[in-house]
Design a protein that fits this description.
membrane, 26% strand, globular, FAD, alpha/beta, six-stranded mixed β-sheet, binds flavin-adenine dinucleotide, 27% helix, transmembrane, eight-stranded mixed β-sheet, FAD/NAD(P)-binding domain
Length: 433
Amino acid sequence: MASNSYIIVGAGVFGVSTAYTLIRKYPNASVTIVDRDAYDADSRVAASWDWNKVIRADYDDIIYCRLALEAQDIFEQDPLYQPFFHKTGIYWMCRTDYATQVVENYRKLGRKAELEAVSVKEARKLYGGLFEDADYSDVRDVLVNKTSGWANAGDALKAVTKKCIGLGVKYVVAETESLTFNGGRCTGVRTKKGDTLRADKIILSTGAFTAKLLEQAAKASNKPEISAGGRIIAGGITTGMTQLDEESYKRFANMPVAVQSYNATVGPFVGSLPPTRDRELKWWGQKIFKNTQNILGKPISAPPPESDYAQWKVARPLKEDIDYANSIFYGKNGASWKMEKHRICWDAFTSSSDFIISPHAGAQGLYVATCGSFHGYKFFPVLGKYVVQMLEGELEEELKSKWAWDRERPDEKLNPEFPRWEMKEILGAQAKL
Ligand SMILES: Cc1cc2nc3c(=O)[nH]c(=O)nc-3n(C[C@H](O)[C@H](O)[C@H](O)COP(=O)(O)OP(=O)(O)OC[C@H]3O[C@@H](n4cnc5c(N)ncnc54)[C@H](O)[C@@H]3O)c2cc1C
């Protein structure tokens, strides 16, 4: 039986997908999204708000492979998502047996697609030799999947949010500072301006801000059980773009998404996305960092306190991470490119890189649906379906335990993507903007 009212804090892919699913399933329900930024603002802090994101089902984890295929089918076929999807293919330089595992997962799932593990010698010749000068040290083989691609991320997010509003979802621009409780039940949210909004179910899809928000709520309500307690870590990565000149654009316009993956000793995978309509080619860097601060007496990683997370203030050492990313994909081909736009993008991370889509164990009526762990965007079209199944106690057992609030947490050292730096450590005392 559905509740009548829902508040979803956060209008990234987790929150918007949930709102879209709820309002279509229960057209008469009251569904409110609360976000610090307007959905059509020129600049937003959401990780989901971006020029582009990789859309792929190339996962060695068969569950994410299955869910990503489900999502990608919607990206390809649903008129709401379809205009934003570009099936350019992916070119993934693998230093483990990742390529073979992905091919095997597609086979196990009975999915026919144009994908294969290609030898380095053969791969270098593909796509007119665009990646001939990449770093192939220790590369075992290259996964080439012609069916993967990328999406205009912010545009798709805006379109689906607009659709939600058209269907009756309320969108409130406000920063949520705390939560309200009646005994053991969460009853609503309190905004920074002092307004209180109430609903039967409160869903936090607040991305990188989640641990901080829960700490504020724990303190304000004197309920320590509300804290995230190390389950959720805010992590940042730098992105950078270059605007290609006419000649380079002609050469790179039809490039696939490119990925360099490493292992837990060396570091996370690094990526480069094909040029946008403004001819801007993008990278994300290899340094994933925490920003541990004293939040109400506890060391918690959270984005910088500025209302825009200081996301456009990118210091030199972080820009150098993008220069490095450029060099390992394009070598001499990209050596003269000028790096223009840099941004620090913050996401919520768990030590296993699994999402949290779960009731919060500390209060009834309170739910957490976030922790994209740097790979959540591609699931946009299906996240809401699984969040609503969770709200209604219908999530299949395997997903329930994978995404639970309380679950066994692997050693973070085994995860190449786990933030291994502190931002201040990278910047150093002398860092110049
Ligand atoms: C550099 C980078 C590259 C990535 N690349 C990819 C990729 O190629 N493919 C992919 O699938 N995934 C990728 N990801 C991951 C993906 O972007 C995220 O996992 C996903 O977007 C997270 O969605 P979310 O809804 O949890 O959070 P967000 O998108 O961050 O949204 C959270 C929302 O909550 C709001 N909010 C937070 N706190 C409050 C508050 N107190 N009050 C009101 N509102 C609040 C924010 O304003 C924001 O709009 C990448 C992430 C990064 C950082």
